[in-house]
Amino acid sequence: MGQKHLVLLTCFWVLSCALLLHASSDGLLRIDLNKKRLNKNAWTAAKVARQESHLRRFVGSQQSLGASSDDIVPLDNYLDTMYFGEIGIGTPAQNFSVIFDTGSSNLWVPSSKCYFSIACYLHHRYKSAKSRTYKKNGETCTITYGSGQIAGFFSEDNVLVGDLVVKNQKFIETTRETSPTFIIGKFDGILGLGYPEISVGGAPPIWQSMKEQKLIAKDVFSFWLNRDPDASAGGELVFGGVDPKHYKGSHTYVPVTRKGYWQFDMGDLLIGGHSTGYCAGGCAAIVDSGTSLLAGPTTIVAQVNHAIGAEGIISTECKEVVREYGEMIIQLLIAETSPQKVCTQIGLCVFDGTHSVSNPIESVVEKQKRGSDLFCTACEMAVVWIQNQLRENKTKELILNYANQLCERLPSPNGESTVDCNQISKMPNLAFTIANKTFTLTPEQYIVKLEQAGQTICISGFMAFDIPPPRGPLWILGDVFMGAYHTVFDFGENRIGFAKSA
C-alpha cells in the first residue's frame, strides 16, 4: 500500500476527561470517563492513524488479588475510533495513556531521551532517572508501521495496571517517532496484548508477566467497549476475569488456531440471512482491539456495500471484466468448472494448483496501480458473485446486472463508504458465523455516525483489506464487532469467547 499523508488540522481536538476514582462494593477499581461525539475531521485523522499503524502491520508481519480476582482498567473512547486507558511506569509511577491493542505485543512509551521527534514533546515521556525500580537493558529496536517508524531501546521497570504492579516488565523507550500519526494521537504509547510470537525483541506481553508473577487468579482478560456515543463510560478492560454486568447469556468459545495475533477459524458472512459465498468454506479471523472497523475481503465488502446502498469507487476494470467475460464465467460455472480454475481458463489468472494467482492478492485499490493484476482479482470476485446468483436460479441478464452493480460498490481508496442515514432502518442485518453460531450486527451497530457542520454523516463499518493465501482470506474483527460482543481472551486455554454486550 502507498504512503498516506495526514493533513494536520488547524485545531486539535481536546478530549476532556473527568476522572472520578472510586472503589466499588465488589472490590473492583473503576474510573468514570467523559467523551465527546464524533465529527468528520477527527474521524478522518483517527481512521488514517488506525489504518496506518494497525491494519498495515498484517502485510509486513510474518499472586492472587485478595477478595477480588479481577483487575479493571477503564477505557476512554476517543471518538468511537480509539479506546485507551492509563497505566503507570516506574516507582513512583509515571502515568501514560496507552492503546490496549490485541493486535501487537510490545509496550512502548516516549522516552525523556527522545530529542528530535515532535510527537515526544507533545506527550508524556518516561524519565528513568526518577524511578527507583528502573533497570537498564539498552537493546535497541525498531518497529515499522505503514507511515513511519518508532525506534528506541528496551528498559525494565515496574508497570502499574489498575492496582496491579507488574515487576521488571521489559518495555520500549522510544527515541524516534517519525509518523504524524503519533503527533495527533490522543495516546502516549501502545500496550500490546497479542502473543509473544509477534513481540519485537522477545519482550513478554504484559499478561504473560502477570501470569508468571501470579498476579491474577484466572489466565484471562476481557474487553467491554461501550459504543453508546452519549454514555460517559468508554468501556472496561478486566484482567483476571470478566465483569458479568457487561454481557448477556454465556460466551461462545473458539480455539486460537495461530498464535501471534488472536486468530481463529470463522465461517461465512450472511447478508439478511443469505450466504456471501466467499468464506462459506471457512476463513481466518483475528480479533483486534487496535482496529476501529471490520476489515475483510474486498469480494465480500463489495457485496455488503451493495446490500446497504453504500457508495464506493467505480472500477472501470471490474466492469470491463463483467462486460467482456461475464457470460463465459456463467457458462463455465454451469459446466461445473471448479470456481478456482475459471479465471485461469479465461486467461486472466495463473493457477498454481490450489488457487488462481497473478501476484499475491492485494486490495483492489492497490491493484489499480498494478495494471493487469486487477483483472485477475476482478475476475475472482465476479466468479463468487455470479456463483451466488446461479444458486438462486437468476437469469443471465439479472446475474450480469448484479455483478456490474457490485463493481460500482467497490470500496473507495481510503477504505470508507458512505450510506444514507435515513435508510438505516431499512438495511439488512449482517451476521458472522463463528463456532456454527451466528453473531448478528444490526445496521445501528455496523453503521458509524459522524458529525460535520451540524449534519450527520453515516459511514459503513466495513472496509476492504485483502490478505493473500495461505494466511488469508482473513477478517479483522475490530471495535465495531467488539462493541456488540463482549470478548474474552483466554490465554490459559488459548481460546476466545464472545457474548452479547450489555
Q: Termini separation (Å)?
A: 38 Å
Q: How would you characterize the largest beta sheet? A: 6 strands, mixed, barrel
Provide the gyration radius in Å.
Answer: 23 Å
The strand order across the widest sheet is 4-5-10-6-9-8
Helix content: 10-25%
Q: Using the alpha-carbon principal axes, give the shape.
A: elongated
Q: Which class best fits the helix and strand makeup? A: alpha+beta
Low-confidence runs of at least 5 consecutive residues? 1-38, 45-70, 355-372
**Beta fraction:** 25-35%
- Count the DSSP helices: 13
Mean pLDDT: 80
Number of strands: 29
Main location: other
Signal peptide: 1-23
Family: Belongs to the peptidase A1 family.
GO molecular function: aspartic-type endopeptidase activity
Q: Could you provide a short overview of the structure?
A:
By secondary structure, the chain is an alpha+beta fold. It contains 13 helices and 29 strands. It is found in: Vacuole.
Record the SSE blueprint.
Layout: E1 20-23, E2 29-32, H1 40-55, H2 57-60, E3 71-78, E4 82-89, E5 94-101, E6 107-110, H3 118-121, E7 135-144, E8 149-161, E9 164-177, H4 180-184, E10 189-192, H5 206-212, E11 220-225, E12 235-239, E13 247-255, E14 263-266, E15 269-271, E16 274-275, E17 283-287, E18 294-296, H6 298-308, H7 316-334, H8 339-346, E19 350-351, E20 356-357, H9 364-367, H10 373-391, H11 396-408, E21 418-419, E22 430-434, E23 437-441, H12 443-446, E24 447-452, E25 455-460, E26 462-464, E27 474-477, H13 479-484, E28 485-490, E29 495-501
Helix pairs in contact: 6-10, 6-11, 7-8, 7-10, 7-11, 8-10, 10-11
